[in-house]
Amino acid sequence: MDGIFPLIYACLGYMLIFFFFLVLACVKCLVKEINVNSSNTHAFQGPLRPLVLGGDHSISFPVVRAVSEKLGGPVDVLHLDAHPDIYHAFEGNKYSHASSFARIMEGGYARRLLQVGIRSITSEGREQGKRFGVEQYEMRTFSRDRSFLENLKLGEGAKGVYISVDVDCLDPAFAPGVSHIEPGGLSFRDVLNILHNLQADVVAADVVEFNPQRDTVDGMTAMVAAKLVRELTAKMSK
Ligand SMILES: [Mn+2]
């Protein structure tokens, strides 16, 4: 019996990775479709609600931009992450994983940006936050902020809400399979409480920065990331 479970978990892990790439390919096709049909308002009935999986956090900028452009105005963004990812440029790259939210705010694609789970931030991160009017909630004050963050109401007067979940928002005890491990993070229950109680029309979301090469042998983070995808899917379908 001991021998079969690692094999099953390995298979599940590979299936999850395959599924990630499959969904990414589908999103790519959808974005292409939007561009092709952008001049034809009758081509799409109802809102398009992409859920993007990663991978590198740089993907959030083009997705938020596409959603905002399609919906015709800024969205509110709820960003769960250990890092603010708001550098003007990181290692000379304006489109790096650490600069997505600077581009989103510069472009006017987000009306409000709430960053939750932050525990690795530089003075530039704070200055950029102030510059763009970002609401940054750091882990060191989470016990104080908890009741507010677990009862959020977002998106009123905007075109809806975009949720970006960097898996490293979670404490590494819950999700070690990430590239930038930062202890002192959110528990999985904290994240669930925030998502479950959020009052919002969630128009799009992403789950990013899961790194299978850093995961435990039994794919613990993959399962946690898959659960986040499930919760967001449920939230978006309401
Ligand atoms: Mn991060």
Automatic annotation (TrEMBL):
Coiled coil: none
Transmembrane segments: 6-31
Gene3D superfamilies listed in its UniProt record: Ureohydrolase domain
Catalysed reactions, as listed in the record: agmatine + H2O = urea + putrescine; L-arginine + H2O = urea + L-ornithine
UniProt keyword annotations, A-Z: Arginine metabolism, Hydrolase, Manganese, Membrane, Metal-binding, Putrescine biosynthesis, Transmembrane, Transmembrane helix
Family the entry assigns: Belongs to the arginase family. Agmatinase subfamily.
Record protein name field: Arginase
Native organism taxonomy: Eukaryota, Viridiplantae, Streptophyta, Embryophyta, Tracheophyta
